[in-house]
């Protein structure tokens, strides 16, 4: 707890990470990304997360890619093609992280790229878990 209060929180706040998230407005924010998400689903725009999932499923096959150890190995990358993901896997491994990047980009007034948002996402994980884990039902 002391580490969080002395290190994690000040670091996150200094980088502009949100101290409060209004989870009630998330659905209305997310619906704005519908066109982008449909383009990702249809393969009309590239997706970092689709590329990773697709390459893993192609490399090891569907059953091995779904094994618990494989899922844990790519957990950090995700907080298809010849080997399609089932709908829930696609949502969790591709669409949720893509929405998260767009929310971060929007939080920064659309002044950053999706690549910048990915860096913020990776850097802010510890802060987000510390600050907001009790807010999620």
UniProtKB/TrEMBL annotation:
GO CC terms, sorted: cytoplasm; nucleus
Domain of life: Eukaryota
Signal peptide range: none
Keywords: Cytoplasm, Nucleus
Domain Restriction of telomere capping protein 4 C-terminal: 40-134
Cross-referenced InterPro entries: RTC4, RTC4_C
SMART domains (UniProt xref): RTC4
Main location: cytoplasm
Pfam families: RTC4
Compartment(s) of residence: Cytoplasm; Nucleus
Function: May be involved in a process influencing telomere capping.
PANTHER family for the chain: RESTRICTION OF TELOMERE CAPPING PROTEIN 4
Sequence similarity: Belongs to the RTC4 family.
Record protein name field: Restriction of telomere capping protein 4
